[in-house]
Specification:
Layout: E1 3-12, E2 15-26, E3 31-35, E4 45-48, E5 53-55, E6 64-68, E7 73-77, H1 81-101, H2 166-184, H3 194-198, H4 200-210, H5 233-241, H6 248-304, H7 308-383, H8 385-391, H9 394-469, H10 476-491, H11 494-500, H12 524-557, H13 566-574, H14 578-592, H15 599-609, H16 615-621, H17 639-653, H18 663-674, H19 677-691, H20 702-705
Antiparallel strand pairs: 1-2, 1-7, 2-3, 3-4, 5-6, 6-7
Helix pairs in contact: 1-9, 7-9, 9-10, 9-12, 14-19, 15-17, 17-18, 17-19, 18-19
Domain Rab-GAP TBC: 575-706
Pfam families: PH, RabGAP-TBC
GO molecular function: GTPase activator activity; small GTPase binding
Length: 706
């Protein structure tokens, strides 16, 4: 157990005092509890270590270290430097183990979503040269044995009392007094356990107070109803010091048996937890199977339903399922926000630690320079014995040597501090990486849930469309209900739904280049079909984002400078993501077309001064270019003038072709991807003159027909 006495710095306005506290690590909550003494029942406070960082500064003094939480900085002091480094290392280890055990996601209802994040739960051990080696355990000041030792004494009795927690102090004092009375009993027999047998609840409270700083230890009760006599380590030490020398061997045997029993109980608890986790997994699989069977039965019931009333009831059931999925999605959004806040907090901790390490390295470098200067000075002075005898006395030399020894001690202290900070930065970085992986997995989970939600809504709209076809045959009340449901479904906008949740795959009526993804039907009966198509497109995009597009995007992100290779060829044929397409297109065009300086601007000036014969045909084709694209559908669009200038410049650049139908679409797509007029012009030149066969674009289009 990680427990022991430490001094805690208390600040009351301008007054700062060190108060002795018994600290105990609670592994269930990753909290460091502190009490006034080891025998107290209620803690005075706790420190949350899950989001804390640790620091030790040589300037603060020997044994002083800090625990930085998001809300407060706790300054503690150990009895020695070795005890301080042991506490820091153990706190790092416990924080690492807790964060690893907590980095799994809550179980949902989908097999794809339920896959937990793979996290290495191995014990955090630093074995690199730049890290601090494991510190030997100071058993005299840390552990359960330290509880039997008397608490460190302060100058005054009231100095160690916590004025912030008077009620807790009163409870602990009363409990200690009652505990001592129960221990000795009315007849003075230390082995009288009748009072404990009559009130087992008092025994639990007593063990909670005298045990590991407030943690309850439950004893097993045999079948005959009697409690096994089990004594507290603190009381054992007091009895042995008070003259009960004949109990030494019996207590040692009891301690060994209790240690073995505690190890076996720990193993039983571990195996029990594993069995529970396996049972939960089996339950989840059963639930998933039942859900699939239930959906199958609902579909069959819908197909076999004879009356419309039954079908409407099934539709309402689907609506309730959609509402349930929406609530789950909101919960996941809240979880993502919390993870983002935790990630920002970890980033700030890492930045602070880096700045602190940089400052320490600069100080260390300055002190090394001072040592080198003093060494050189001593070498010069010792080289001349006569000068040494005349200028430097023995006392001055002794002071310099003493100062050098102090500087060497400071260097050793800074080296130890740097090694610990290296391990702290290393561990915090690994924790930050784990949080980032958790966030990525949560995003994937949200995408899967959104895709499933879109599928459910699509099925719901499909059912409404089937009912829409049978409206003339339905009674008037049922027909009115169907019309209301259809009108309500049409009022919901796909884009608004995407904005309310996570914008994982923004899908609206236009894609990233402005092309219309869903046709805008004028007929009322076809609008429902358009909604179904929009939901299907969004669902497919969400599912392909993680399964197909993300691995390809990761491969493209790893590509540095573009150069001809078989790997690049394979990547291009697999598909170029939108964020890389402009760069790749520019690189391909620049390899096959020599960009003449000011050539494009000269062609534009020529087109302004002289009208080209193809100008009239270009003006006719401009309104007919990519009519399903929002950047070209309107005559006042910003890309229409750019397209006009590109086509006119090409007609002057290649008089043999001038302009023919089809060039307007090539130039328009080049503008959408490259966004620059001159780049789009050279892309058009490369396609027409290098990629396509000769005479493919001409007045007769003979090669195109062939």
């Amino acid at each position: 157990k990680l427990c022991g006495y430490l001094n805690k710095l208390g600040i009351k306005g301008p007054i700062k005092t060190w108060k002795s506290r018994w600290f105990f690590y609670d592994e269930n909550k990753c909290h460091l509890l502190y009490y006034r003494t080891a025998q107290d029942m209620n803690p005075l406070g706790s420190i949350d270590l899950s989001s804390a960082s640790f620091d030790c500064k040589v300037e603060n003094g020997e044994g002083v270290f800090e625990i930085r939480t998001p809300n407060r900085v706790f300054t503690l002091k150990a009895i020695s430097k070795q005890a301080m480094m042991y506490w820091l290392q153990q706190l790092q280890v416990r924080r690492w183990e807790f964060c690893n055990t907590q980095s799994r996601f809550p179980v949902g209802s989908s097999q794809l979503v339920n896959e937990p994040l793979v996290v290495r739960t191995s014990r955090y051990v630093v074995d690199e040269e730049d890290f601090l080696p494991p510190v030997k355990t100071p058993t005299e000041v840390v552990g359960l044995k330290a509880a039997s030792l008397p608490a460190p004494q302060t100058s005054t009795a009231l100095q160690n009392i916590s004025l912030k927690h008077p009620w807790t102090e009163i409870q602990n004092t009363v409990h200690n007094i009652c505990g001592s009375k129960q221990l000795w009993g009315n007849n003075g027999n230390v082995f009288n356990f009748s009072e404990f047998q009559e009130h087992p609840e008092n025994l639990d409270k007593e063990q909670e107070a005298d045990g590991e700083a407030g943690r309850a230890v439950k004893e097993e009760i045999p079948e005959d109803g009697r409690l096994e006599p089990r004594l507290n380590w603190v009381r054992k030490a007091k009895w042995m010091n008070s003259g009960f020398l004949g109990l030494a061997e019996e207590l040692s045997r009891e301690r060994n048996s209790m240690d073995k029993a505690s190890v076996l109980q720990q193993q039983i608890l571990t195996l029990t937890e594993e069995v529970k986790s396996q049972k939960e997994l089996v339950k989840i699989l059963h639930k998933a199977l039942e859900a699939a069977q239930q959906e199958k039965r609902v579909s069959s019931m819908y197909l076999t339903a004879a009356e419309d009333k039954d079908r409407l009831e099934l539709v309402r059931h689907k609506v309730r399922q959609i509402a349930d999925l929406t609530s789950r999605l909101e919960a996941l959004e809240q979880e993502k926000k919390e993870l983002e806040q935790m990630l920002a907090l970890r980033d700030s901790h890492i930045q602070e630690l880096k700045e602190h390490v940089q400052l320490l390295m600069e100080k260390n470098h300055a002190k090394q320079e001072v040592i080198m200067a003093l060494t050189e000075q001593m070498a010069r002075e010792l080289s001349d014995p006569l000068q040494e005898a005349n200028t430097i006395t023995a006392e001055t030399l002794y002071k310099q040597q003493e100062e050098i020894e102090h500087l060497k001690d400071d260097i050793d202290a800074y080296k130890t501090q740097n090694q610990f900070l290296n391990s702290e930065i290393h561990q915090v970085t690994r924790l930050w990486t784990s949080v980032a992986e958790n966030e990525k997995a949560l995003l994937m989970k949200c995408a899967c849930l959104q895709a499933r939600n879109c599928q459910m809504e699509s099925k719901y709209l499909t059912v409404l469309r089937k009912l829409q076809e049978t409206v003339p045959d339905l009674p008037s009340s049922h027909a009115e209900l169907v019309r209301n449901l259809i009108q309500e479904a049409l009022q919901w906008d796909v884009r608004e739904g995407a904005e309310e949740g996570l914008n994982l795959s923004p899908v609206s009526e236009y894609d990233e280049y402005g092309f219309m993804t869903v046709p805008d039907y004028e007929v009322e009966d076809w609008k429902l079909l358009a909604k179904i198509q929009a939901l299907e497109i969004k669902s497919n995009n969400l599912r392909s984002q993680e399964v197909v597009e993300k691995p390809l995007r990761d491969r493209w992100n790893s590509v540095g400078e573009l150069s001809p290779s078989a790997e690049l060829k394979s990547l291009i044929r697999s598909g170029i993501p939108v964020e890389h397409r402009q760069r790749v297109w520019r690189w391909i065009v620049s390899r096959h077309c020599s960009h003449l300086p000011d050539h494009y601007q000269r062609l534009l000036r020529q087109s302004k001064s002289t009208e080209h014969p193809a100008c009239r045909q270009i003006e006719l084709d401009l309104p007919r270019t990519l009519t399903n694209n929002k950047y070209f559908s309107s005559p006042t669009s910003q890309l229409i003038p750019k397209l006009r200038r590109v086509l006119l410049a090409f007609s002057w650049h290649n008089p043999a072709i001038g302009y023919c139908q089809g060039l307007n679409r090539l130039a328009a797509v080049a503008l959408l991807v490259l966004e620059d007029e001159e780049s789009a012009f050279w892309c058009l030149v490369h396609i027409v003159e290098n990629l396509m066969p000769a005479d493919y674009y001409s007045d007769t289009l003979i090669t195109s027909q062939v």
